[in-house]
Amino acid sequence: MSSYDIIIRPVLTEKSYAGIPTKTYTFQVAKSANKVEIKNAIEEIFNVKVENVTTAIVKGKLKRQGRTEGHTPDWKKATVRLTSDSKAIEFFESLS
After folding, report:
1. What's the domain range around 31?
2. How far apart are CA 29 and CA 85, in angstroms?
3. CATH number assigned to the domain comprising residue 82
4. pLDDT for 64-93, tens place per residue?
5. Looking at the predicted structure, is the pLDDT value of residue 96 above 70?
6. Under 8 Å between Cβ of 80 and 24
7. How far apart are the C-alpha atoms of 51 and 86, rounded to whole Å?
């Protein structure tokens, strides 16, 4: 699995914006990826040094259309904190 298959997209919420000044970023990642694979993928894609990675499985929500109901899929969220001497990720610099 390549680095671009592991990191799916950034998660852009109010809570994730609050972590940008402390070099903490949130991404949606592949459910099968572990913390070491996520760390290596972030370091390779963005050319930064990762201090630690925390992960969580986000449960899908119940969605209804009339009497038909279903669930959105579960997904994995990774919060990545960079080392203090590492440069920031350029994508998030314009958002803070």
Report:
1. 3-93
2. 25
3. 3.30.70.330
4. 999 999 999 999 999 999 999 999 988 888
5. no
6. yes
7. 9
Split into its structural domains, the chain has a count of: 1
47, 13 contact by CB (below 8 A): no
Instruction: Let me know: does 19 contact 26? Beta carbons within 8 Å.
Output: yes
Q: 54: number of CA atoms within 13 Å, CB side?
A: 7
Instruction: Please report where in the chains the tokens 């119940």 appear, as a residue.
Output: 62
What average pLDDT does the chain have?
94
Helix residue ranges, H only, 47-96: 90-93
The 10 Å Cβ neighbour count of residue 86 is 16
Query: What pTM was computed for the model?
Result: 0.89
Conformation bin of residue 16: beta by default, left when phi > 0, alpha when psi is -120 to 50: alpha
